[in-house]
């Protein structure tokens, strides 16, 4: 019991910890810049740490404390980079019944090209109650919960390898911070919905080659699936100014602003732009999941059949590909609800599955893949 109690104590003696007393946007906050010589450090090495701003900590009212870690990572082009994660530590009471520490890396769908919309800043200013409710749910089960800025310091939205590397390195950093680096000293899992599933999925595919020492208990991904300025119209209602306004607004605001619009209407040649060889190469490297490796851990995939954002076919194909090469997947296709509904009802099922994974229970199926239609509404 002594070892179990001690591993939760962060390694303050090895790090300089400061208190973030006020919120400063990442683009203006020198804390977010990597220190000189960071390139020589191993991926996942903690470069800087601080206590999270009080308003972020207060939102997770069942967390004993929250910290922010800046750590070494690797970008899409495999160059040295860095990223940040916000770590919430559970109370002693909530973790008392656990036989082994547990870590949930929760990738939120922040979908932005603006670094000032990153979770480490936006948790208290943008993303609101739904995200923090999930964080509190994990904390109530005694889990450490980590919320990484997986797009990195340049807000590289849709850069798959960048996101996957940052997620894996955030797990390395949190395990180091909590003294859980010994083999089998903790269980850890990944979770993401929509844009968060994109990051989690890439992490799952890249784990074997990039972070083979990480024995991930499972990954829950919701709405997993398979993006040009010079070609924008300069005039009319669908023009470059309108299109580029999305650069500096939150994803939810952009969705409302462009709701019901044909995005290809902004481009001079319509959807012809999507067939450009340059874009095909970029999409292949950064967007297409199931081409960068085979997840070596159990996967829980879930999606609403009538999701209005992406066709269910793309998720079906993604699951079929990884199942065809030996992945272990439980895939729920929900017959009711849309994208937002499945974020809620699917999220409940994901949390139950993650609880089983982090408790070390046998997951279904034991081997291979199981695809099933379910009917689970928001009110159930």
UniProtKB/TrEMBL annotation:
<keyword id="KW-0732">Signal</keyword>
<dbReference type="InterPro" id="IPR029058">
    <property type="entry name" value="AB_hydrolase_fold"/>
</dbReference>
<dbReference type="GO" id="GO:0016042">
    <property type="term" value="P:lipid catabolic process"/>
</dbReference>
<dbReference type="Pfam" id="PF03583">
    <property type="entry name" value="LIP"/>
</dbReference>
<protein>
    <submittedName>
        <fullName>Lipase 5</fullName>
    </submittedName>
</protein>
<dbReference type="GO" id="GO:0004806">
    <property type="term" value="F:triacylglycerol lipase activity"/>
</dbReference>
<keyword id="KW-0378">Hydrolase</keyword>
<dbReference type="InterPro" id="IPR005152">
    <property type="entry name" value="Lipase_secreted"/>
</dbReference>
<feature type="signal peptide">
    <location>
        <begin position="1"/>
        <end position="20"/>
    </location>
</feature>
<comment type="similarity">
    <text>Belongs to the AB hydrolase superfamily. Lipase family.</text>
</comment>
């Amino acid at each position: 019991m002594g070892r179990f109690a001690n591993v939760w104590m962060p390694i303050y003696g090895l790090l300089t910890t400061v208190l973030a007393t006020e919120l400063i946007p990442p683009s203006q906050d020198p804390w977010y810049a990597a220190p000189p010589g960071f390139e020589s450090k191993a991926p996942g090495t903690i470069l800087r740490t601080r206590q999270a701003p009080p308003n972020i900590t207060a939102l997770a009212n069942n967390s004993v404390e929250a910290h922010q870690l800046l750590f070494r990572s690797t970008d899409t082009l495999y160059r040295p980079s860095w990223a940040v994660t916000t770590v919430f530590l559970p109370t002693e009471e909530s973790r008392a019944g656990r036989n082994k520490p547990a870590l949930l890396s929760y990738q939120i769908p922040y979908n932005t090209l603006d670094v000032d919309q990153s979770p480490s800043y936006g948790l208290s200013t943008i993303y609101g109650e739904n995200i923090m409710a999930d964080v509190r749910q994990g904390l109530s089960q005694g889990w450490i919960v980590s919320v990484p800025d997986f797009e990195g310091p340049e807000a590289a939205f849709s850069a798959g390898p960048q996101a996957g590397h940052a997620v894996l390195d955030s797990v390395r950093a949190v395990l180091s911070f909590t003294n859980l680096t010994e083999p089998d000293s903790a269980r850890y899992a990944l979770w993401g919905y929509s844009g968060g599933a994109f990051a989690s999925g890439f992490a799952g595919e890249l784990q074997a080659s990039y972070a083979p020492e990480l024995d991930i208990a499972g990954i829950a991904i919701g709405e997993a699936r398979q993006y040009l300025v010079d070609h924008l119209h300069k005039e009319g209602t669908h023009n470059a100014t309108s299109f580029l306004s999305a650069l500096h607004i939150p994803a939810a605001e952009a969705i409302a602003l462009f709701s019901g619009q044909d995005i290809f209407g902004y481009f001079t040649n319509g959807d012809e732009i999507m067939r450009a060889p340059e874009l095909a190469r970029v999409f292949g490297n950064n967007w297409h999941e199931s081409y960068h490796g085979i997840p070596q851990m159990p996967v829980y995939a879930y999606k609403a059949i009538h999701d209005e954002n992406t066709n269910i076919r793309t998720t079906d194909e993604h699951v079929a590909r990884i199942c065809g090469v030996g992945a272990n997947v439980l895939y729920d296709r929900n017959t009711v609800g849309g994208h937002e509904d499945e974020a809620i009802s699917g999220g409940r099922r994901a949390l139950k599955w993650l609880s089983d994974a982090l408790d070390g229970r046998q997951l279904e199926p034991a081997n291979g893949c199981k695809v099933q239609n379910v009917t689970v509404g928001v009110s159930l």
